Amino acid sequence: MMVSHSRLRQIGWAAVLAACIGLFLVLSFRVHAVKSEVLLAERQIIALQRETILLETEFEARASQRQLADWNAVDFGYEAPRADQYLENERQLASLGSPRAPGAPSPIRVAVAQVENSGDANDARMLSPLTGKPVTLAAAAQAEAEAGFAEAFGSLLADASPVRSAHARTMLSAEVSE
Questions:
Q1: What is the pLDDT of residues 21-46, one digit of tens each?
Q2: Which of 59, 78, 111, 135 is most exposed, with minimal Cβ within 10 Å?
Q3: CA angle 114-117-123, nearest 5°?
């Protein structure tokens, strides 16, 4: 069977196209593999740079320990603590305290206002330092509004319920009288 010349040309082009696509896929996979190796190498470089900075800092700190030890011994007179300087509990710490000397400054104290409450809620109200008038706090105003709402809602429920209207009204009147 004879394949026509144009059919053979189409098959040839298809083979060339398939080879190009195959080479493109192989090349793109290779590029991605090299790219991931580069990213891994960059991460390792960053980790090594951080480790180098840490080691340099530690080296500088250890190099200055000799100088710090000299300063402690000569200039400041610091010494390492001895075993008998450690305390076992709070009682030993308290036993080290001494009473205040006569010329010592007095300790800091917290101011406390004594409010005389004669039973009237208006006596303990806050006054404005500018006007001298009583200040109504937002929380108190909201509590008063909620109490009014609860009372109105309770009476609405008592009116709407035919079964327990008498009991609800007695409960509501008992709460209001308290």
A1: 999 999 999 999 999 999 999 999 99
A2: 111
A3: 100
The span from the CA of 158 to the CA of 173, in Å, is 11
Cα 125 from chain centre: 37
Question: Which of these, 54, 50, 51, 73, lies nearest to 62 by C-alpha position?
Answer: 54
Helices 165-177 and 138-160: crossing angle in degrees, nearest 10, is 160
Which residue's entry shows tokens 């929380």? Answer: 139
Q: What is the pTM of this model?
A: 0.32
